[in-house]
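Lecture 7 notes: from sequence to structure.
We start with the chain below.
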Amino acid sequence: MRKFFGTDGIRGKVGAGKMTPELALKLGWAAGRVLSRTGTKKVIIGKDTRISGYLFESAMEAGLSAAGLNVMLMGPMPTPAVAYLTRTFRAEAGVVISASHNPYYDNGIKFFSTDGSKLGDAIELEIEAELEKELTCVESHLLGKVSRIDDAPGRYIEYCKGNFPAEHTLHGLKIVVDCAHGATYHIAPNVFRELGADVIAIGDKPDGININHEVGATSMGKIRETVIAEQADLGIALDGDGDRIMMVNRHGKVIDGDEILYILACDAQDRGVLKGGVVGTLMSNLGLDLALKARDIPFVRSKVGDRYVMELLKQHEWRIGGENSGHILNLDHGTTGDGIVAGILVLAAMRRKDATLEELTEGIKMLPQVLVNVRFEGSHDPLASESVLSAQAEVEQQLGERGRVLLRKSGTEPLIRVMVEGDVAADVTRHANTIADAIRALV
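Predicted structure tokens for the same chain:
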């Protein structure tokens, strides 16, 4: 059983629980002990723009050095940039200090292996075992040294641009790019400008505490307003660490991760390079499933979380997968979710087909989806109750193949989440409340 690592590293409120300077120091040392047994003994550290990044960067640096590893600092850089540069520098591991889309008062620490993928369970368990031991220090002549990768932004910008076809340009496109006051603030606008677009940047002035605040992929109001006001062709919204993307068409309509997956899969199919099908999650809209089926593209669902999407991609030997929240994986173009690269791939599809973003999404109809949370603190499992199962079965029968029901327990709160999808919004709401009422009756 894991004591420290979750499905995406360690994350929490700064100064409380796991996210303390003491733990960061010990974690750096423990990871260094495990990672220093073989290889180059180099570790890269990147972070987002939240104010606590300085604290945790220093603590991780000290712990790694005490274990005898050399540290290469990148400063504020997107999560996928850390994964990429870990590979190119042949580093033992990459460390990302970020809480992604969370508010500034949270932070987190996660690791990438030398090939740019997330650390495997076995290595994380080894690190946890070291965390239980007393911290020691290697002899002085064996202490790790610290250096800075001064050209990290330029390296990553060139990598991102390399994913856009050389025979095309973004000349003539006006794009709004929302950096969420996060790690892409000095990267994303330059990438799209250098590819030829007229870029209007918002959310590009981080101050340490405004990361994700009313901007970015989890707060789409600002970018929708800006796209319409500036009469832009589209908008690209990233989250605090740059591994998520949401888009906006010229009319201000939000294009989520499901629609982006559809665009990328259709483009790959049209070019004859689609390998297998697409992996979504339990929360992926039924509209994506139906739209891919109409194109004879296989589709499977994983548990929620990009780690589980990756597992199914590897299992099926497919390349494209992601979440409706905007985590997009294309293993032909990277080893982890990358918001900037996903945006580039959508723009490449637009240019190849000489189409607008609206035209690329004409083949997918997102079905109304309603989520009702029911507080439940009873000792028994309501999802196993005959009355709830009966209500669910009745709703599923009425929805037929044009609808879907998902019941699941929250992993963080005493809630049962009732999700229903279907063709008619009013019917979907009614069905969701029918099941929710069956659960409430058990309290």
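Points to note: The chain has 14 helices and 18 strands. The first helix runs from residue 21 to 35.
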